[in-house]
Amino acid sequence: MAEIRLPKVEQGQTKIRNVPIAVTPEGFWCCPSPVGFQKTLKSQKPLNKPKPSSPPPQVTVHKKQVPVTEKKPMTTPIKPAGTYGDQRTFTPVNHGISAPVVPERVPRPKVEHVPRNVAIEYGEPGTSDMKVILLGKQGFCVKLSVHKIVLMEHSCFFTDKLSGQEPGLSCLEIDDCEDVESYVETVGLMYCKEMKQRLIKQSVSRVLRILKVAELLGFNSCIQSCLEYLEAVPWVGEEEEDKVVSSVLRLQGEGIGVAPVLKRISSNVSNPPNDTISHIMELVLKSNEERGRREMKSVVLKLLRENNSLPSYAGPADVCNETVYTLSRSCLDSLLSLFKQAVELERSDKSVDSREPVVKQIALEADNLSWLLEILADRQSADEFALMWASQQELATLHSKLPIVSRHHVSCITARLFVGIGKGELLPAKDTRQLLLQTWLQPLINDYNWLQHGCRSFDRKVVEEGISRTILTLPLEDQQSILLTWLGSFLKAGDNCPNLQRAFEVWWRRTFIRPYSDAQGNVPHSDSSMASKQQD
């Protein structure tokens, strides 16, 4: 808490200038913030210029005579900042404010040197029995005319400072106030019957400042009203949410009940149910609405990527992986069943209209598998998926029996696996890589022309690089077998076949150049060894 001094008020001791405050039966206008006050001073015209002839503004004020000791007084316009209700009823009094006379040749003082003193009176005029002086930064000072009984009734802080003091003590100073405006607003709320109603139209940031001051003053009813406001009002943006949560957690550490506010961001259950992620994914996978399914797949994938950045102990990683693999097996079984149906329809020469629903379902299941593979690849857990896909020999056999328009979506899964292996996103065993190439490389080659022209997301260069790198991870004999088979297809299809020339060149050098280079490099070493033996 800021430094507190309890001096007695003597005549002429307090150098505070009385600034008019508009008082109405419904409340009063609070003083502006130091920043707003400084901006107001900057916006005034220079002191050495005559004032325009327009009449001065009329404001409703309460008469309050305070001795002024400055030699060059200034009239400071007050900017309304908020209103508060009053526990008492009183009648407003109208007064005119006249501008002071300033000598023309006096140089204009700098803004930071201008005294910024404001006086505010709460309750009925002339009934206050003590003063609270708020000393802010850069010389900003506010004198509050208040009622001791009101402060002691609402604030534990003021109760501790004022109880047991001698009757003549009627002034309390609070030094180094970081937010004078919030102090003024918080004290004003002590005179309100319905604090929650006064907070409704305020911003979250402003209520957080009031909450901080209320906490310092021990103003429990205000703290409760602020918490009720924060529990109900929307928090806009992550930054605002973080500010609210940090403020509320600070109160929680002091034993103040903040559970209703924190329920928005936390649950009583320490970990979310294991089936929650599964349920969300199932809803997405079963959706037949293309746009909604596509958008939610993107959203879920993005959110899961955010979870991947957390430490391993912070999230249910194993549970998520098990869920994805369970759904992947289900999609694979469904895809195999659809392929069998499509082959039967092709054999029976059914009409295109009868085959169209099955073709759409094949495309949907293939897209679902691609999405699940993307999730596993982001989590570096797709090795088992590669083995599952490489083991689908029956599916690969049925693939060749369907028209390319019905089957090409499946080749996108194969291409994604090759890209992942080429980038090191998944590291399946050698047997899995070899089986994957044997099972699915030729179906991919057969669909390659369609993929280039029929799939917007297909990147030919990336896929070719992934296939090449996957081939080059195998033993040299397996590289030769696969690349010679590819060469026969490439010489027939040309651009309609993946261009694996780089892999072919690397295999060529490994096979025909490196053995001789290594042998020549070993000759000098062998000669030197023989010469050393002869010398011995």
Please characterize this protein's 3D structure.
- With 536 residues, this protein is α/β, with parallel strands linked by helices.
- It has two domains: 117-263, Potassium Channel Kv1.1, Chain A; 274-308 and 317-513.
- The chain has 20 helices and nine strands.
- The protein has helices spanning 34-43, 148-154, 156-162, 180-189, 195-199, 204-217, 220-232, 237-253, 259-262, 274-286, 290-308, 317-347, 352-378, 383-390, 393-399, 404-423, 430-454, 460-472, 476-493, 501-535; strands at 4-5, 23-24, 27-28, 58-60, 94-96, 116-121, 130-136, 140-146, 171-177.
- Strands 1-9-7-8-6 form a five-stranded mixed beta sheet. A two-stranded antiparallel ribbon has the order 2-3. Strands 4-5 form a two-stranded antiparallel ribbon.
Key descriptive features of the protein:
two-stranded antiparallel sheet; 9 strands; 536 residues; 57% helix; single chain; alpha/beta; Potassium Channel Kv1.1, Chain A; five-stranded mixed beta sheet
